[in-house]
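Good morning,

Attaching, inline, the C-alpha cells for the sequence recovery test we're adding to the shared suite. The designed sequence is right after.
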C-alpha cells in the first residue's frame, strides 16, 4: 500500500488536513487511516458542538486566529451543506462584582482578535434570555452557534472521498517503518506522514523521535441533558472563565436542535479512552497515567489537586445542577436525569515545565508532522488549522 501523503487519525482535524493537502497537491495520492470502523468516533463526534467565536484567547495565540477564521469557515460550510446550524449566540455572565474586570479583559481580547462581542446591561441580557442571572452586566457573542458534530464530520468524510482521498477505516497504526508505517492491515509506504491521532498523538510521535517533552493527559467531559422542550433556553450561557485554566467551567449549551444541556466536566481519566467504567481498559495506560496524575498532585506547576477534586464532585447530578443554577433561574434537578455520551479531551502536558499546553503544538521534519495538541476549540479551528499544518509541511 502506497501514498504520497498519509494521515493517521480520522477526526475532523485529520480529515481536514487530508482534504487541504489534496486541494493543494492534486497530483499527489492522499490516504487516511482510522483505527475505528467509522471516522469521528472520539473527540470529533463527542464534543459540545459549539462553534466558538474566539474572544477567550490572547491575540498572539494560534487559537485566537484559527477560532475566528474557523467559526466563519464552518458556519459557511454548514450553510452550504444544509447541515443543522443553530445561530443562538452566547451570553457570558458575572456572578459578582469581582468578576466584572474579567468581562473587560474578554472585551479587550475580542477587540484585539477582531471578534464581535457586545457589552450589555443586565436588562439587555434578560431580553436575550429571560432566565439568565448576571451581576449588572454581561457579554453577548452573536457569532457563537451550535452544530451537530457527527453530521459535520460525516459530511467532510464524504467530501474527502469525492475529492480523491482514500479513507481506510478499521486500520490502526502499529509503528514506524523505514519508509512509512506499520498498521494492523499491513505496511504502508508513505512519502510524508501526518499524525493527527488525538489521544494517541504523543505515542505515535515518539515512534518518529518527537514528543519527548510532552505527554497526553486525558480528561473526561460529561454533559447532563435537559428534559425541557426545545427552546426552553434561547442561548448558550457561560460563566466568566478562569483564563489560566483550559476548561471553561459548567455552562449551558443549546444544541443544534434547540435542546439544553449542562456541563462539561473535566474529570481526570485513568486511561485514554475511559468513556465508561472499565471500557477500553489498558493496564499499561492505567499505571502510566495514574502515576503521572499522582505526581501532578505534588509537583504540578498549577493546582491540579484542586482541579481534580472540583471535577470529581461533578459526577453528582445534584452538584452539576447546583452550579448551573447560578447562571440561569428555574433549573430543577428533575429536568436533568440523562447523561450524554462522554468525551475525552486529549490535553497536552509538558513534563519538563510541568504545565498544561494552552495552544496548538506541532513538531515535525521533512518526513513527518505531528499534531500534538489540537486542544479545544479544535473542532471550530479545524479548517484554518489544516491550512496552517499544510503550510508548515511545505516549509519542511
Amino acid at each position: 500500500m502506497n501514498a504520497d501523503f498519509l494521515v493517521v487519525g480520522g477526526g475532523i482535524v485529520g480529515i481536514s488536513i487530508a482534504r487541504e493537502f489534496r486541494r493543494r497537491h492534486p497530483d499527489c495520492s492522499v490516504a487516511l487511516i482510522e483505527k475505528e470502523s467509522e471516522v469521528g468516533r472520539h473527540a470529533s463526534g463527542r464534543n459540545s458542538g459549539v462553534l466558538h467565536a474566539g474572544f477567550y484567547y490572547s491575540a498572539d495565540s494560534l487559537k485566537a486566529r484559527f477560532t475566528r477564521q474557523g467559526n466563519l469557515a464552518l458556519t459557511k460550510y454548514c450553510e452550504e451543506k444544509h447541515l443543522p446550524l443553530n445561530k443562538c449566540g452566547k451570553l457570558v455572565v458575572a456572578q459578582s462584582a469581582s468578576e466584572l474586570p474579567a468581562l473587560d479583559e474578554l472585551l479587550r481580547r475580542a477587540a484585539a482578535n477582531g471578534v464581535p462581542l457586545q457589552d450589555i446591561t443586565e436588562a439587555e441580557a434578560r431580553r436575550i434570555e429571560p432566565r439568565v442571572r448576571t451581576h449588572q452586566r454581561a457579554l453577548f457573542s452573536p457569532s457563537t452557534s451550535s452544530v451537530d458534530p457527527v453530521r459535520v464530520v460525516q459530511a467532510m468524510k464524504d467530501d474527502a472521498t469525492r475529492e480523491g482521498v482514500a479513507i481506510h477505516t478499521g486500520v490502526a497504526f502499529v509503528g514506524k517503518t523505514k519508509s512509512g508505517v506499520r498498521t494492523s492491515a499491513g505496511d504502508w509506504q508513505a512519502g510524508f506522514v501526518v499524525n493527527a491521532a488525538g489521544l494517541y498523538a504523543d505515542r505515535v510521535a515518539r515512534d518518529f523521535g518527537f514528543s519527548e517533552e510532552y505527554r497526553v493527559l486525558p480528561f473526561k467531559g460529561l454533559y447532563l441533558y435537559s428534559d425541557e422542550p426545545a427552546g426552553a433556553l434561547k442561548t448558550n450561557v457561560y460563566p466568566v472563565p478562569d483564563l489560566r485554566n483550559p476548561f471553561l467551567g459548567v455552562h449551558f449549551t443549546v444544541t443544534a436542535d434547540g435542546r439544553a444541556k449542562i456541563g462539561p466536566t473535566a474529570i481526570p481519566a485513568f486511561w485514554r479512552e475511559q468513556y465508561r467504567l472499565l471500557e477500553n481498559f489498558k493496564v499499561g495506560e492505567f499505571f502510566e497515567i495514574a502515576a503521572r496524575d499522582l505526581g501532578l498532585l505534588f509537583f504540578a506547576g498549577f493546582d491540579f489537586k484542586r482541579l481534580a477534586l472540583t471535577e470529581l464532585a461533578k459526577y453528582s447530578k445534584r452538584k452539576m445542577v447546583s452550579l448551573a443554577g447560578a447562571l440561569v433561574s428555574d433549573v430543577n434537578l428533575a429536568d436533568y436525569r440523562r447523561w450524554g455520551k462522554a468525551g475525552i479531551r486529549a490535553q497536552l502536558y509538558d513534563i519538563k515545565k510541568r504545565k498544561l499546553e494552552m495552544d496548538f503544538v506541532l513538531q515535525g521534519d521533512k518526513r513527518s508532522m505531528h499534531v500534538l495538541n489540537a486542544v479545544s476549540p479544535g473542532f471550530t479551528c479545524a479548517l484554518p488549522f489544516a491550512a496552517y499544518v499544510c503550510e508548515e509541511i511545505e516549509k519542511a
